[in-house]
Amino acid sequence: MQRVCFLLKVRQERLEEYRERHAAVWPEMLAALSAAGWHNYSLFLREDGLLVGYLETEDFAAAQAAMAATDVNTRWQADMAGFFEALDGAKPDEAMKPLTEIFHLDRPR
User: What residue ranges are annotated as transmembrane (predicted)?
Assistant: First the structure.
């Protein structure tokens, strides 16, 4: 299982609305994420807007591609794009650049 962690930046003036949107994620979006192989997906938000995402999947590129092929993801990404800083024209899910894992407690040494 591949562990993936990424960072994005939520606009300061939209933090509360971003929290509200994630308190009520569309059921069809939740179903699509599960069907695409996204497991243990979590988002953590700091008060300055730093967003840390974490998920587990067999193959991140395949999981991203599976989501990109869904209509619900297209609608969700368009709806969420205005919440983020520095996307440089990318959709939020395209701006998710995985961090390099350098330590894991349970990794054999």
Answer: none
For tokens 């939020």, what's the residue?
92
Task: Flag whether 88 is in a domain.
Answer: yes
How many structural domains comprise the chain? 1
Residue 15 domain-assigned (yes or no): yes
Determine whether 39 is an active site residue: no
Averaged confidence pLDDT in the chain: 92
State yes or no: pLDDT of 89 exceeds 80: no
Q: Which two tokens stand for residue 57?
A: 């999947």
Residue 104 lies in a domain: no
pLDDT of 96 strictly over 90: no
pTM for the full predicted model: 0.88
